[in-house]
Amino acid sequence: MCNATALAVTQAGVGAAGSIATHQAEKSKVAQANRAKLLNYNREVDNWKFNEMVNANIFSNEALENDRIQDNLYTDMLDTWMDLDFEHSKLEGETSQGIEEAIRKMYQNDYAGTQTGRTASRIAGQSAKALGFAKVGLLRELMFSKKETQLQRDQALKKQEQESIKWWTELGRFTPIPERAPSKAAMEAGLDRGPSGWALGANLLNTGLGLAPDLFPVTFKKKDR
After folding, report:
1. How far is CA 79 from CA 26, 51, 89, 142, 179, in A?
2. Half-sphere exposure of 195 (CA within 13 A, CB side)
3. CB-count burial class (<10 Å; 0-12, 13-18, 19+) for 169
4. Tens of pLDDT along 166-204?
5. pLDDT tens digit sequence for 109-120
6. How far apart are CA 14 and CA 8, in angstroms?
7. Residue 131 has pLDDT above 90, yes or no
8. What is the 3-state secondary structure (H, E, C) of the chain?
9. How far is 46 from 54, CA to CA, in rounded Å?
10. pLDDT tens-digit profile of 24-74?
11. Could you give the angle at which helices 195-215 and 2-108 cross, rounded to 10 degrees?
12. What is the mean pLDDT of the chain?
């Protein structure tokens, strides 16, 4: 009887040990799979953060470059306007000087004070006519210069606006749209509280119940009828 009981206990112990070993192996496998999923998730998050940082830096650099270009375009346009205004002001001075020279020449050629009658009138009329022609020519040139200067100013402004829109469209127009953050993968359930844990517990319980009659024969002894 003792030998049979010992054999039963040994067999039960071997079976229980095998169940526990199988359960632990499955548990280790699940834990390893969860660690691998968590590692991949962390890598995806790191890559996502890196890409977001790169996109933000690219946008910031493009915005700064666009500001620099816009400032240069505006400065160039102002320089062009100043050059055009200078040339026109220079022509205004030359026009005034030309009119003064024409007036001086008129008085130098005017002998009305030393002539009388028709001769004096004719000479005075010729001088006044020459002055009028000179003033008309100088003022006409000044007028055309003023219109041409304004036209060139408008062209410079239009060119600046076109270049400004071009660079504004190419650099720093839209802020980068953040990408969706990686989703964490579902972890596999632990085996201690899952079906595998329940199966192990049931197996050990059955083993214990199976050994009970051998370990406690008096208690489980059948009564004679």
Report:
1. 79, 42, 15, 22, 44
2. 1
3. exposed
4. 988 888 777 788 888 888 777 666 555 544 554 545 555
5. 655 445 555 555
6. 10
7. no
8. CHHHHHHHHHHHHHHHHHHHHHHHHHHHHHHHHHHHHHHHHHHHHHHHHHHHHHHHHHHHHHHHHHHHHHHHHHHHHHHHHHHHHHHHHHHHHHHHHHHHHHHHHHHHCCCCCCCCHHHHHHHHHHHHHHHHHHHHHHHHHHHHHHHHHHHHHHHHHHHHHHHHHHHHHHCCCCCCCCCCCCCCCCCCCCCCCCHHHHHHHHHHHHHHHHHHHHHCHHHHCCCCC
9. 12
10. 677 777 788 888 888 898 999 999 999 999 998 999 898 899 999 999 999
11. 170
12. 74
- At residue 34, what is the residue type? N
**28: exposed, middle or buried (Cβ count in 10 Å: 0-12, 13-18, 19+):** exposed
Name the token pair of 143: 């007028």
Token pair 């010992």 is found at: 6
